[in-house]
Design goal:
Blueprint: H1 4-17, H2 26-58, H3 84-98, E1 102-103, H4 112-115, H5 150-162, E2 167-176, E3 188-198, H6 203-218, E4 224-228, E5 234-243, E6 255-264, H7 266-271, E7 280-287, H8 288-296, H9 303-306, H10 309-312
Helix pairs in contact: 1-2, 3-8
This protein binds 3,4-dihydroxyphenylalanine.
3,4-dihydroxyphenylalanine (DAH) binds at residues 145, 147, 193, 231, 233-234, 260-262, 283-285.
């Protein structure tokens, strides 16, 4: 690429050319003018690109590991801390990895195929509307749930099944929904998805995994129950409820709806190239914000994305 100086010189030379127009016959003048204007436009574009490139070269790389300088405006802040959602998410992932699950991270930009088709929502399926999806101008989808990763995880690990193994993976991720924000609804939040596939996976195993997750997380025995649910990607589909933990002031009388789950729909396995006659699977997904809110007794989900230091300093 030419330097900013060189392009500026060319522009100056070009500007001088305009003087020649006077000396030309009328017929030639027009064509000459058009030609000059085109050249000038091209040079101006090149100049802009060169200036931008030069400006970006001037930005010094940031050492993200460097200790922070004292904050002059807020001197009482000496050190940053982990966001409470990340602390809780890591606790959850820790429990899953002790149970033998692999962890893969979800994307923050996905597409129509992974959001819907691969999850057995055919074109025009009414349940598509339930997910309040955002779309970028280019037609991409910031995922409305971590289930968008199911297809990728199934494809990535399906060879393990043929070798006699299983698929056991959890997928944390940030998700986005175009809904009215209030104390219990946020446009941006975190979920964790789970998938298990084997020759003989059962709903009972799924409930065992989930009961264990919540018991370890809340540090006590808990009763669980299910109620019917509907998701195109599971059949049957249920919602899992846990008894309100005593540590949260529960007396064993209240129930909390924690996540959606079910047996993976055979179509979802088929689309991922897995023999749905031979293999069965279960999957589940639920919000991390919810878990953390319950644990800390928070009544407004909007704190998490607010960036408010008074809030963050409490953790
Ligand atoms: N993705 C669903 C939601 O956000 C939750 C869910 C339900 C995930 C059932 C699953 C599942 O994996 O099997 O509402």
């Amino acid at each position: 690429m030419l330097s900013v100086e060189d392009i500026k010189k060319s522009l100056k030379a070009l500007n001088a050319e305009y003087a020649k127009m006077k000396t030309l016959a009328k017929e030639e003048r027009k064509a000459f003018g058009i030609q000059l204007n085109e050249q000038r436009q091209k040079l101006q574009q090149e100049l802009q690109a060169a200036e931008e490139a030069a400006a970006s070269r001037k930005v010094k790389p940031i050492d993200v590991t460097a200790p922070s300088a004292p904050n002059k405006k807020i001197p009482e802040i000496k050190q940053g801390s982990k966001h409470p959602l990340m602390t809780e998410l890591n606790r959850v992932l820790d429990i899953y990895s002790h149970m033998g699950f692999n962890i893969i991270e979800a994307r923050q930009l996905d597409d129509e195929f992974h959001m819907f088709e691969a999850l057995n929502f055919p074109d025009g399926h009414p349940a598509r509307d339930g997910y309040d999806t955002f779309r970028t101008e280019e037609g991409f989808i910031p995922p409305a749930h971590t289930s968008t990763m199911q297809h990728r995880a199934l494809v990535r690990y399906r060879d393990d099944l043929e070798k006699g193994g299983q698929i056991a993976v959890v997928i944390p991720g940030r998700v986005f929904r175009n809904e009215d924000v209030d104390a219990t609804h946020e446009h941006t939040f975190y979920q964790c998805e789970g998938i298990f596939v084997s020759e003989d996976a059962t709903m009972g195993q799924m409930l065992g995994v989930l009961k264990n997750l919540f018991e370890v997380y809340y540090g006590q025995d808990l009763r669980i129950k299910t109620q019917p649910g509907y998701f195109p990607f599971t059949e049957p589909s249920v919602e899992l409820l846990i008894e309100k933990p005593k540590s949260l002031g529960g007396k064993g009388d209240g129930w909390l709806e924690m996540l959606g789950c079910g047996m993976i729909h055979p179509n979802v396995l088929k689309i991922a190239g897995i023999d749905s006659e031979k293999y069965k699977g279960f999957a589940w997904g639920g919000g991390i914000d919810r878990l953390a809110m319950l644990k800390y007794g928070l009544n407004d989900v909007r704190y998490f994305e607010s960036g408010k230091l008074e809030f963050l300093k409490e953790f």
